[in-house]
Specification:
By secondary structure, the protein is α/β, with parallel strands linked by helices. Helices cover about 35% and strands about 10% of the residues. An eight-stranded mixed sheet has the order 4-3-2-5-1-6-7-8, with helices on both faces. Helix 3 packs across helix 10 and helix 4 packs across helix 5. The chain starts with 18 loop residues before the first helix and ends in a 45-residue tail after the last helix.
Length: about 450
């Protein structure tokens, strides 16, 4: 945690980058025009021309879910790395630099490696892919070239038709299901659970977490069994017994229990991943996942959390209620395509003051509309101005909360924490109608070093 404002240091301005990296960002920015088009055919064709790098990732854990998937994936990667394995982590969205999506042994990929992967994908016909498909293919190329032994892949959106689902992972987890992205995934929990459970495959270990709505668990269970997977459900007792992770928030214990279940399943293929309880506890305690209930400054305390759907906003509101600082001032910025009222309602009720603002990308909802939905709020035209205003209102003993979107968090965080910032802001496009293309995902490959499997759990 830093004690003050990092503007004027390495944190806030755009980092020095090579012309080739900037050109890649500009090309990917243009690819956003294709929107979100779900399906596996396009990316599968490009990967075939690349020699199938997605088959050279070592042991793969595939992690989906409405909330908690990013934190759970980060914990799985930390546990694998603590076992001495060369470990890759692919996640989205990034906060301030595209390089954050490609992590090997705990560090973001170097610019030149990202540029080389982008060039390889483009040469294989990558310009025909959507933004997320291109970036996913780049991750596979980069991780294969790095010779990783364990790869942890976070689903981008949904699961069944997400570009990451071309990988035949021996272990997949759905952390939980709640309402989000209904325009793409369906209007109710059953439909969304069906899309999330689309990452479950025959012969696979399917881990079902406790980070969503309880009524979705039997839906996921039924889908996993129908897919021919071995079902492993995280229990409430396991959540209660999970070591306290380094990520703040009571809900992170459920994510830790899910991550431990994933690693236990992977250990059936690599017994070296079985570690002592103390070693696992130390690995979980060291996990960091920026922008998730993260404190970045003091006097006043400045806390950042994406909270980009109603379920996540309710979890944040519960954590805010337990904090001692007063007054609590919320800087709220939300994507226009989200359930704005569902996000605003629990957060507004957990603070004393609200400032409606917007992040500097096209998806951001304008402050006037957001304030009207929130019911009571001051207005700020930019997040920079909103944070200044909130800190003045909070005073040294207060709390400033920036929430509602990871894009907002990504815009604010470099002000307080030194981190790479891309010269061209590239992000996932706003959701649009999906393609109905729905080829069957691959079945898990039998990795080398596979010992005999134990009976189904």
């Amino acid at each position: 945690m830093t004690g003050g404002d990092a503007r004027g240091t390495a944190g806030a301005p755009a980092s020095a980058t090579s012309p080739a990296y900037r050109a890649l960002l500009e090309r990917l920015l243009a690819a956003r025009r294709a929107g979100i088009v779900l399906g596996l055919d396009r990316v599968t064709s490009v990967l075939a021309r690349l020699g199938h790098p997605e088959r050279r990732l070592g042991l793969v854990a595939h992690v989906g879910g409405t909330n908690g998937k990013g934190s759970t994936a980060a914990m799985v990667a930390a546990l694998a790395a603590a076992s001495g394995r060369r470990t890759a982590l692919y996640g989205s969205p990034h906060l301030a630099s595209l390089r954050e999506r490609f992590v090997v042994d705990g560090a973001p990929a170097a610019e030149d490696a990202v540029v080389a992967a982008g060039a390889a994908v483009a040469a294989a016909g990558g310009d025909a892919l959507t933004f997320f498909e291109q970036v996913t293919a780049m991750a596979f190329v980069l991780f294969a070239e790095a010779g990783v032994e364990v790869a942890v892949l976070e689903v981008g959106l949904g699961g069944r038709l997400d570009a990451t689902n071309v990988v035949a992972a021996p272990v997949a987890a759905v952390t939980g299901v709640a309402l989000d992205h209904q325009a793409l995934l369906g209007d109710d929990l059953a439909a969304i659970a069906g899309e999330k459970a689309g990452i479950f495959k025959p012969g696979q270990d399917a881990v079902i977490g406790r980070s969503g709505e309880p009524e979705a668990v039997p839906l996921l269970r039924a889908r996993a069994r129908a897919a021919g997977a071995r079902v492993r459900e995280v229990t409430e007792a396991e959540v209660a017994a999970a070591p306290t992770p380094g990520l703040a928030g009571a809900h992170q214990r459920a994510n830790a229990a899910c991550a431990l279940a994933v690693v236990e399943a992977l250990a059936g293929l690599d017994p070296g991943l079985v570690r002592s309880p103390d070693e696992r506890a130390r690995a979980l305690a060291a996990v960091r996942h920026p922008g998730r209930l993260e404190v970045v400054a003091a006097a006043p305390t400045v806390l950042l959390d994406g909270a980009h759907n109603p379920h996540a906003a309710a979890a944040l509101a519960r954590d805010l209620a337990a904090r001692p600082e007063r007054p609590r001032v919320l800087v709220l910025a939300v994507s226009a395509d989200k359930d704005v009222a569902g996000i605003a309602r629990p957060l507004v009720g957990a603070v004393e003051r609200v400032i409606a603002s917007r992040y500097a990308q096209a998806r951001g909802l304008d402050p006037e509309t957001l304030a009207a939905v929130a019911g009571t709020a001051d207005l700020a035209p930019s997040l920079d101005a909103a944070v200044d205003q909130a800190r003045a209102l909070a005073g040294p003993g207060g709390l400033v909360v920036v929430a509602g979107s990871l894009y907002a968090v990504g815009e604010v965080r470099p002000r307080f924490v030194p981190m790479p910032v891309d010269p061209v802001a590239v992000s996932d496009p706003s959701p649009s109608s999906p393609s109905p293309s729905s080829p069957s995902p691959p079945s898990p490959r039998s990795p080398p070093r596979s010992p005999p499997r134990s009976p189904s759990r």
